[in-house]
Amino acid sequence: TDLLRISTQSKVSLADWEKVYAASSQLISSARCELDALDQDSQVSKLNDSKVGMPVSISPLALDYLDTNLSHYLSSEGKFNPFKVRHAPKLIEVEDQAVTKLVEFVLGNTLLTSYIIDTLDELLRGTGISSYLISTPQIYVGRGDVDWQVEFEHPLGSENVEAAIRNSSIQMATRDNSHKMITHRQKSIVRNPFANEDVAPSVLGLILQHNDSQTQARVITELAMGKSHTLEVKPILQEIALSAWVLNPSGEFVQLLPAAEAG
């Protein structure tokens, strides 16, 4: 089993991400080819078969949604990015209701933590659970039999989740307020600008305001050095961002340089 451990003490190299992405792209493409050859009822049945790497029930409408909304995280080789979460009304039905093991999905592009946290916030809205409680400095990315799996662990323990939520101060920012963040107890969570209309743009969105890779690298470097542009970035997000490829407004993947190289 391939296992990458991302922590505040170690950075995942671009070579590691490329290996993960190549495998996920291959899985995405092969699964989509299988599905496209089937009628609607057979598609739903096939998606329940773990052999295609998605042991969850996804409707064809959900596939279209994933195609449209997650394309920012895929290259031209990938068509969609199936994922498994605790609650996904209208999209995915899952059996696992555990609080500490919420996400299992096929990886697309990096800035991984930002995307997962935003997905959790959206899909957990109204459930009384906050993704902040599961976003810790340790994320484990491993290769299962057919899936890439991402597992979050948090120190609070599920018995303390409700109390922690009651004691949290949550501020919601809209897409129009481009530099605001959702905060819990003064700790900011990086947001994904592409997920929904009522979530705040993320560090990725801030970077993509600039069209040239040199300026993007400078912004990411400043973020990592604590010049927050009104955003506070957790150490784990800094590390991922500094070794990330992002999609620029021209539709090209741009490598963000490590701080030492960015000048």
What's the structural domain tally? 1
Alpha-carbon distance between the two ends? 38 Å
Per DSSP, the total helix count is 9
Structural class: alpha+beta
Output the helix-strand order.
EHHEHEEEHEEHEEHHHEEH
In the predicted model, the low-confidence regions spanning at least 5 consecutive residues are 1-28, 47-208, 223-263
How is the largest sheet built, in terms of strand order?
A: 1-6-7
Q: Helicity, in percent?
A: 25-40%
Instruction: Tell me the number of strands.
Output: 11
- What is the 3D shape? globular
Radius of gyration: 18 Å
Mean pLDDT: 36
Could you describe the largest sheet, including whether it forms a barrel? 3 strands, antiparallel
Beta-strand percent range: 5-15%
InterPro entries: ApbE-like_sf (IPR003374)
Polypeptide structure, described:
InterPro entries: ApbE-like_sf. The structure is a single chain. With about 260 residues, this protein is α+β, with helices and mostly antiparallel strands. It has one domain (about 5-35, about 55-155, about 170-260). The protein has helices at about 15-35, 40-45, 60-70, 110-125, 160-165, 205, 215-225, 235-240, 260, and strands at about 5, 55-60, 85, 90-95, 105, 140-145, 150, 180-185, 185-190, 245, 255. The longest helix is centred in the first third of the chain and has 23 residues, at about 15-35. It is globular. The termini are far apart.
